[in-house]
Amino acid sequence: QDILTPEERLWLDQQPVIRFAPAPNFPPVEFFNEDNEYQGITADFIKIIDQQLNLGQKLEIVQLKDWGEVMSEGRSRGIDMWGAAEKTVARSQYMQFTEPYIRLPAVIIVRQEFAGDGIEALVGKKVVGIENYASYEHLQENYPQLNALGVPDIEAGLRMVSYGAADAIVANNAAAIYYIEKNGLTNLKVIGESGFEWNLRFAVRDDWAPLLSIMQKSLDSITALQKRDIYRYWINLDSSDSWKFTKDYMLIAMAGALVVIVLVLFGWGWRKRAAVNMQRLTQRIEEQKKIEEELKNLATTDELTGTYNRRAILEIAQTDYQKCLDEGQPFSVLLIDIDHFKQVNDQYGHEVGDRVIRAIVNVCSDILKVKKIGHIGRIGGEEFVVLLPMIDQTEAHSVAEQLRQCVEKEPIQCIENTWYSATVSVGLASLEHSEKFDELLNRADMAMYQAKKSGRNRVAVSHELVAG
Ligand SMILES: Nc1nc2c(ncn2[C@@H]2O[C@H](COP(=O)(O)OP(=O)(O)OP(=O)(O)O)[C@@H](O)[C@H]2O)c(=O)[nH]1
């Protein structure tokens, strides 16, 4: 049975084409995927409407560059219908709108360190909004005291905030989650709603009144079940599908969108749930940050001793060393090697050997911590490097001596009632002229071998080697 009146059907039959321009990049509402296929919640509504009205070839989906172009084409009658438009006074000059069918809040997103909550906290701050988006117009109209700046898309705006080029962005939370995940922008958080809420509607050119009532009828005839299926489809969409979002994002963004749509459709306490959505976004960002920190720790930590591994300590060395070199400050490095360590392994076993390594690192780390100087890292099996930025040779020598003596005095239990006293040989090199860090480390290494050669359990200084 046709839901249209004979007049409406006649009008529709007489239209050769209805040019429909979606927002090209407004996930999960509507967007074009990498194969330029029209996707999203609105796209699914359109599919049902298309079937209901039997639009067939009439419906021409036009892919434009951005939302600005969608609007300008609309003004010049280059297109006839929009899928997810906010109703504004300006747009009402050339568009007519259906009742809303999606609601999304615009949230305020800032960097983690930002202090303050809500839109009031943004006075005097650089706040970005998306050009040609109703949320941006709302910001400019209602908060002229803000230093608002338009950017072409959410992604660019989020990056500006993350990198410190702007203080805040106002954007819809579902899209924000997507781009935050996509770009790995883990330093962001949500501090509240902007007071603007998208009430997204279909819109048609204002001189096509019959199409408006046709679209409204068609929307009204979509059942609650069909609407639910739309969100279910998006929820269950696999990450390998054309919508190339990560699985995590799919779950979160779709859960967010699901909450949004379901609540709108069923008229529940939307505001309360919006707060939950925001909380979820902030929580998600924090979780991701934690995971990244853990991964970073894993990548920089020596598994046996918990101190820096070779890669990490050499990376720190390059930075610290360059800084001292540039500022004309002293820099010293110690290379520490456990004496006769093979014997420990041979006599007591590898496990005890490991215990000895850990004990020596602990002794050294504790001293450095108490003195609030330097870093220690394990660069080989029983070889460690200690970086001493801002420390000259004389002071470094006394640090090295202290480390050596404390290691010697530290009793390490090998087996029951058997204690072992490890010793170390230390090579010291201090920055003397403009040399590379590798050369400095090499001098420390040569000094360490000198310490071994001259009897072990001692500190040898590279300078003395050169001089002598
Ligand atoms: N237990 C344990 N042993 C290790 C580890 N890494 C290297 N080693 C051992 O450390 C020993 C180093 O031996 P050598 O290089 O001959 O030196 P050394 O016995 O300490 O003698 P000198 O350095 O000349 O005083 C070898 O037996 C390695 O197997 C480790 O992670 N755990």
UniProtKB/TrEMBL annotation:
EC class of the enzyme, as a word: transferase
GGDEF domain residues: 329-464
GO BP annotation list: cell adhesion involved in single-species biofilm formation; negative regulation of bacterial-type flagellum-dependent cell motility
GO cellular component: plasma membrane
Enzyme Commission designation: 2.7.7.65
Database matches in InterPro entries: Diguanylate_Cyclase, GGDEF_dom, Nucleotide_cyclase, Rev_trsase/Diguanyl_cyclase, Solute-binding_3/MltF_N
Keywords, in A-Z order: Coiled coil, Membrane, Nucleotidyltransferase, Signal, Transferase, Transmembrane, Transmembrane helix
GO MF, one annotated term: diguanylate cyclase activity
UniProt feature coiled coil, ranges: 271-298
Keyword Metal-binding on entry: no
Classification via SMART domains: GGDEF, PBPb
Top-level taxon of origin: Bacteria
Catalytic activity field: 2 GTP = 3',3'-c-di-GMP + 2 diphosphate
Spans through the membrane: 249-270
The protein's required cofactors: Mg(2+)
Protein's name in the database: diguanylate cyclase
